[in-house]
Amino acid sequence: MGLFDRISRVVRSNVNDMVSKAEDPEKILEQVIIDMQEDLLQLRQAVAKAIASQKKTEQQYNQNQSTANTWHQRAQLALQKGDENLAREALQRKKGYAETAAMLKQQLDQQLGQVDSLRRNLIALEGKISEAKTKKNMLKARVQAAKANEQLQNVMGGINVGGSMAAFELMEEKVLELEARSQASMELGGSDLESKFAALEAGSDVDDDLAALKAQMLGGSNPAQGQLPGSVSASGASTNVGTPVDAELEALRAELDSF
């Protein structure tokens, strides 16, 4: 199992454990990002160590390969000088360095593969962290919206909507009752006023009838004899005033003449 697989397993186990114990989603999301960043730091350190080890192996390989080439040149020189024993010994040295270089080359190839894999995993983890941060912001916004909605529902649940509406209906009934009473008062006041004017109009008709009757009685008779007791003569002096009724009638007549 590679280093990145082990890190991923640790991350998943930590996340699952925190999620099962957490009550605040915002806090758990923040903690997940922190843990992923710590894992990223460890992975970067691992990549750095792997690269350093690969560079060291590469240097050792180059040195052994260079030394093997040097002993090969020396073997050629010994043969040119006619010293086969020295040439054989030089070739023996070359063989040792060449074998070491071959082993280092295999190790170097493996390390190059590991470093390449670690780099890809590092890039992938950086991408996942960036994606996780974006999702964290989205989830935090959803959490805040859910909390706000829950708070609103709790507030709405605490409001007695039925009682409030019943109070409004009761007030509406009282307003309607007051309006009805006001309308009735206006109608009653109008009726009383109408009755007063009707009485006045009726009184005017009686006065007209009385004047017509007097004119009829005065017509064709002695003016002095045709006047009602207590009437006023042409000179304006009051004639014989008899009974109190006649006096009251004369007073009413004088009051009417003043209008």
From TrEMBL:
At the top level, the lineage of the source is Bacteria
Quick check: keyword Coiled coil in the entry?
yes
Q: What is this protein called?
A: Membrane protein
Coiled-coil ranges per UniProt: 101-149
What InterPro entries does the entry give?
PspA_VIPP1 (IPR007157)
UniProt entry keywords in alphabetical sequence: Coiled coil
**Entry annotated with the keyword Magnesium:** no
- Pfam families named in the record: PspA_IM30
- Similarity comment: family membership: Belongs to the PspA/Vipp/IM30 family.
- Region of interest (Disordered), ranges: 222-242
